[in-house]
Amino acid sequence: MILPTLLAACTWAAELPLDLDLLERGSVREALERVATRAGVELPRASWPLSNREVVGFLARIRGVDSTALTPSDSVVLRDFLQGPRELWRWEEGRGGSVLALNARTSGFAMAPDTAPEASRQLHASIGGTIYGNVGGEVWFLSDARIFTEWSDAFRYRDRHVVGDGEPSGVPYDDPSENGRFESRTGARYVAWAQWSRDWISLKYGRDRVRFGPGVWTGLTTRLESPPYNLLDTRLEPFPWLSVQATVLEARPGELEYAFPGDTRKWVHVHRFELRPFTGVTAAFQNMVLYRDSGGVQPTYLLPLVPIFFSQDLAGNRDNSAMQFDLMVQRWRGWSTWGALFLDDLNSLTDIGGASWLNRWGILTGARILSPWRSFDADLSMEFSMVRPWTFTGGREEAYSFAHYGMAMGSELGPDSRTLHARAAWRPTGTTECSLEAFRLEKGVGAPATLGTVHRSTNGPDSYLMEEGNVESTGATLGGKWSPWRDVTVGLSGTWDRQTDVEGESGDHFWGRVTWEADW
C-alpha cells in the first residue's frame, strides 16, 4: 500500500541536472534527431551520449529558430526536458544542493512466432530504476540497473550476454541441460558512472554505452547495441565550433563459443575531433588504437594523435590502429543526411576496390526526410552500410578484433557485410505512432567475414566482395506504439523475415511482438 500511495503523490516535476549524461533511450534520441532535422539546426554532437546541458541548450535554440519544430509527439517524448522529470523520491539539503533522486520503471516483451521448428515463444520482463545525485555539488554519479527474467519454450541461450550488457544471465554456458536449451534465465543489466562537468569540459569514469559518429541502426566504430564499456572519457568544447573527445575503453572477451584469437582483455583509445564550420554541418575526424592488455594502459596512446598510415608495414605492424571521417548535415529544414568512412587498412587509393585483404574499410550513409506539413507528423529514414572483408580484425600474428563480450563493436554484421534499412513512421497524435520498416542484410562467410581470423597471404581471392555463399536476411516489420498515460508505452508489431543459408536454402518466418514500458 505504501508504494502506490507514494507513486500517486509524485505528480510534481523536478529539474534535470544539467551535468548528467543522458541514458540511452532510443525514443529520446530519435525525437531529438527529428527536431533537429525539422528546424535545420544541428545536434550538439554526432556522438552519444549527450549531456542534459547540451539538450537543454539545443531545445532553447530550437525555440528561438522555430518553436513549431516541436510537434505534439516529440513534446511528449521530450517532456522530461520541457516539464521536468517525475521521480519516485528526491532529497536535497544545503545551499550547494547535494541531491539523491530515485526513479523506477518496468518493461518487457512477449513474442510468439510461427510454427517453424527452430522458433520459440519468449517472454521477457524486467524491473529496475535509476539513482543519481552529487557529492559536494561537484561530482555527479548515476546508476541505472534492472533485473530481468526470460522464459522460452525452446530457446538455446548460446551467449549469456545476448541482451547486450555484458553481465551474466544466470545460465552457465556449459550447462549440461538437454540439447543445451533452457526454459528460463534471470540476470541483471546496469550502467554506472561518476562525472565532473563544467560548461566546456567534462570528465567521466565508469561503465556506459557509447557511439562515435552518426548512425541510426548501426555505426562503424561502436554501436549503442553493444554491451556497455568500462571507460574514462574526457570532453572539451573550448569554442562553439569545436568539440574534442578522448576516450579509453576496456573491451572484454565473450563466451567460449564466441571467443576470438587475441580477444583477451583489450584497451581501445579513441580521439575524436568534431568541427562545425557552418550552421547545421558537423564534420569529424577520429583516430583509434586497439591493443591487447599487457600490463595496463599504454601512456603513448593517450597522446592526441597516434601515427597512422594508409598502408601499414607488415614487417612491423602497429597495433590495430584505424581512423574514421564522418559528416552530418542538418542545415536545411525537412531533411538531413549523414555518412562515415572507416579506414582500418588501405593498400592504395587506386586499388580501393581490389581483392587484397589489405583494403579494409567500411562506409555508412543515411538520410532522413520529414513531412513538409507540420499537421502531418511523418518521416522516412534510410541507411546503408558496406564493410570490406577482414575489416575490424587485427594483424598477421595476433588478431585484435573489434569485439566486446562476444559482440561486434563496429557495424551490426561485422566484416564482409552489407546492410540496408528503411523506416517510415507516422504520428497521428502526440501519443501514438505507426511504422513500417524494411531491411535487407547480407553477410559473407569464411575467414574474411570472421572476427579474430589471423591474416595470411595464402587466403588469396576469398576476400572478394559479394563472394558466393553470403547469408541473406530480408524482411519487414509493421508496428504501432501508444502512450495512454505519461511515461507508459505499449507496442504491437508483426514481422516477416526470409532467411537464406549458406547452401542457398530459404525459409520464411513470421512472429508477433507485444512490448510495454512504465516509468515513474
Topology:
Layout: H1 2-9, H2 26-39, H3 52-65, H4 72-77, H5 79-82, E1 89-93, E2 98-113, E3 122-135, E4 139-155, E5 182-197, E6 201-208, E7 229-239, E8 242-251, E9 266-278, E10 281-292, E11 320-329, E12 335-345, E13 360-370, E14 378-387, E15 403-404, E16 407-408, E17 417-429, E18 432-443, E19 471-485, E20 488-500, E21 506-519
The share of residues in helices is: under 10%
| Count of strand segments | 21
Number of contiguous helices: 5
Radius of gyration: 23 Å
- What overall geometry do the principal axes of the alpha carbons give? globular
* Major sheet: 18 strands, antiparallel, barrel
- SS strand fraction: over 45%
Q: Based on helices, strands and strand pairing, what is the structural class?
A: mainly beta
Low-confidence stretches: 1-12, 158-163, 310-316
- Terminal CA distance: 16 Å
**Regarding quaternary structure, how should these chains be classified?**
single chain
Q: What order do the SSEs take from the amino end to the carboxyl end, as H and E?
A: HHHHHEEEEEEEEEEEEEEEEEEEEE
Mean pLDDT: 80
How would you describe the overall organization of this protein?
The chain has helices spanning 2-9, 26-39, 52-65, 72-77, 79-82, and strands at 89-93, 98-113, 122-135, 139-155, 182-197, 201-208, 229-239, 242-251, 266-278, 281-292, 320-329, 335-345, 360-370, 378-387, 403-404, 407-408, 417-429, 432-443, 471-485, 488-500, 506-519. With 520 residues, the protein is mainly beta. The longest helix has 14 residues, at 26-39. It starts with a helix and ends with a strand. The relative contact order is 0.12.
